Amino acid sequence: MVSTVTTSTVTTVTTATATAGVLGVSLSFIAIVALCIFMVQKEIISNVKSSWSPTMSKALDMAIVPLFLSFLMIAAFKIFEVLK
Q1: Are the beta carbons of 71 and 35 closer than 8 angstroms?
Q2: Could you read off the pLDDT of 32-76 as tens digits, one per residue?
Q3: Pair 23, 4: CB distance under 8 Å
Q4: DSSP secondary structure letter of residue 53
């Protein structure tokens, strides 16, 4: 009876760890792609001469700053992972 519980627990932990690893990689990829898209949009909007351009530029800044901080954290974790 004890070996069945231990096997079940190990299998559950292994599955959860594998799922978290895949989820972390996909979320990192999504964040980096979103950062690139928002930065391109900001460059395009900064060259448009319109009354709504400054407002849209500020709105994009609000999206770019947290994504840039996330990018820095992703890069730092990858560097620490390689050095480990």
Answers
A1: yes
A2: 999 999 999 999 998 888 888 888 989 999 999 999 999 999 899
A3: no
A4: H
Domain boundaries, the chain: 24-83
Alpha helices in 1-84 (DSSP H): 2-46, 53-83
Residue keyed to tokens 């928002």: 38
Closest CA to 74 of 39, 37, 26: 26
What does pTM read for this prediction? 0.66
> Please, what's the largest Cα pairwise distance for the chain?
73
Within a 13 Å sphere around the CA of 13, how many CA atoms are in the beta-carbon half? 6
Provide the residue type at 1 as one letter: M
